[in-house]
């Protein structure tokens, strides 16, 4: 059986990045339900992100999304974050919300629009320089709605060219993380629809181009842990965007819909040594809290990842290897299921106590009065949302 002290050490070292956009108002195309106390500025989003770290101790960075988090002085934003105990992490580019992008951004048939999109991506690298961020995450809404609308192959050429320009602009310590998504908003073809396409572009670009697996971006039934294992084996898994889904890209809390899937995915990470920071896998949340309170939902999500990680670390690897070697199908499966069925909440509560944290982060947050404080203070202004 694994050594519990080693398991705790690994859990203590785990790092989970929270997304700034999780704290703003979000919704579906039908309705955005505004919540009281929502941040109005990037600084207020950082304040909320810092709460997640304060109560969990393992979420010390916050990803930004540009232009949603546009400010005049990014170095000042980074130092504001540092003063609150967190760092600015991944910079997410946004080339999907401008009227010019109706037919796509970097794959648009119009060279003017393509160059506008590339300029935005380069601006994001400038921002990384100012904030000290290592990763640029690119997700493109590009695609087509109708057969014949555009050339699939020509769009790949345009994409490759844009990625080349951006990759060349990166400093040695910076990475390009390319995210794929099956469909939406494009309904016929998407220009980066799957891990194979993302992988192909990343291999061509070079060592510092990696793939992001957003757990909500696959067709139902796709075996995500297989993709994770294959990407890790090729040294090309750069990041996770964690969330959970029942249907499509639901962006619900990670581990809420299918905790067993999360366990299976993290099992592959553990098997490949992917929790070692040197492997360079970034563990991020990419979620929207449309109807639930946002800060406790982020805290809960971090805890869900911790619980799945703890179970994975409890797998009896020796017993598993022996059963696999012996062709003991049921025995091998039982080793995994034993770990998955373990109640790790007491272990995590103990770890938190060791770290000087409350054993129950959600309850501690509710007791802190922060929720009431932001509702009272954040009056007026425009609450942050996907449009701002
Ligand atoms: C996309 C993708 C990106 C995220 C945006 C908000 O579907 O998941 O990672 O930044 O949504
Ligand atoms: Mn994502």
Secondary structure topology:
Layout: H1 4-13, E1 17-19, H2 42-56, E2 61-66, H3 74-83, E3 87-93, H4 111-131, E4 135-139, E5 143-144, H5 152-169, E6 175-179, E7 189-190, H6 195-205, E8 209-214, H7 224-233, E9 237-242, H8 259-271, E10 282-285, H9 294-313, H10 317-325, H11 329-340, H12 345-354, H13 361-368, H14 370-377
Parallel strand pairs: 1-2, 2-3, 3-4, 4-6, 6-8, 8-9, 9-10
Antiparallel strand pairs: 5-7
Helix pairs in contact: 1-9, 2-9, 4-5, 7-8, 8-9, 9-13, 10-11
Beta-L-rhamnopyranose is lined by residues 65, 92, 139, 179, 181, 214, 241, 249, 286.
Could you describe the 3D structure shown?
The protein is an alpha/beta fold. The chain has helices at residues 4-13, 42-56, 74-83, 111-131, 152-169, 195-205, 224-233, 259-271, 294-313, 317-325, 329-340, 345-354, 361-368, 370-377; strands at residues 17-19, 61-66, 87-93, 135-139, 143-144, 175-179, 189-190, 209-214, 237-242, 282-285. It contains 14 helices and ten strands. It has an eight-stranded parallel beta sheet. Strands 5-7 form a two-stranded antiparallel sheet. The radius of gyration is 21 Å and the shape is globular. The termini are far apart. The model has no long low-confidence stretch (mean pLDDT 98). Manganese (II) ion binds next to loops.
């Amino acid at each position: 059986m694994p050594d519990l002290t080693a398991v705790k050490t690994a859990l203590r070292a785990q790092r989970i990045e929270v997304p700034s956009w999780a704290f703003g108002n979000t919704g579906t195309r039908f309705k955005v339900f505004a919540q009281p106390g929502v941040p109005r500025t990037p600084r207020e989003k950082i304040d909320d992100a810092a709460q997640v770290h304060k109560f969990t101790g393992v979420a010390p960075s916050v990803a930004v999304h540009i232009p949603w988090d546009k400010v005049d002085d990014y170095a000042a934003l980074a130092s504001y974050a540092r003063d609150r105990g967190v760092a600015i992490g991944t910079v997410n580019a946004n080339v999907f919300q401008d009227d010019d992008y109706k037919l796509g951004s970097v794959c648009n048939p119009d060279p003017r629009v393509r160059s506008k999109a590339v300029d935005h991506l380069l601006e994001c690298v400038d921002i990384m320089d100012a904030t000290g961020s290592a990763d640029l995450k690119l997700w493109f809404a590009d695609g087509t709605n109708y057969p014949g609308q555009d050339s699939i192959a020509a769009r790949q050429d345009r994409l490759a060219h844009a990625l080349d320009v951006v990759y060349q602009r990166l400093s040695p310590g910076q990475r390009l993380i390319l995210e794929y998504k099956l469909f939406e908003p494009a309904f016929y073809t998407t220009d980066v629809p799957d891990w194979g396409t993302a992988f192909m572009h990343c291999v061509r670009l070079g060592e510092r181009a990696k793939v992001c697996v957003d757990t909500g971006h696959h067709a139902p039934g796709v075996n995500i842990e297989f993709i994770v294992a294959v990407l890790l084996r090729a040294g090309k898994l750069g990041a996770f965007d964690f969330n959970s889904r029942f249907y499509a890209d639901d962006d619900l809390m990670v581990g809420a819909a299918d905790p067993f899937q999360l366990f299976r995915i993290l099992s592959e990470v553990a098997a490949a040594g992917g929790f070692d920071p040197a492997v360079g896998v970034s563990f991020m949340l990419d979620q929207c809290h449309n109807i639930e309170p946002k800060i406790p939902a982020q805290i809960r999500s971090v805890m869900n990842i911790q619980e799945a990680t703890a179970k994975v670390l409890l797998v009896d690897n020796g017993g598993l290897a022996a059963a696999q070697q012996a062709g003991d199908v049921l025995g091998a499966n039982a080793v995994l299921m034993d770990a998955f069925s373990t109640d790790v909440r007491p272990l995590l509560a103990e770890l938190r106590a060791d770290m000087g944290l409350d054993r129950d982060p959600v309850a501690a947050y509710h007791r802190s009065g922060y929720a009431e404080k932001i509702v009272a203070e954040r009056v007026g202004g425009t609450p942050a949302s996907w449009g701002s």
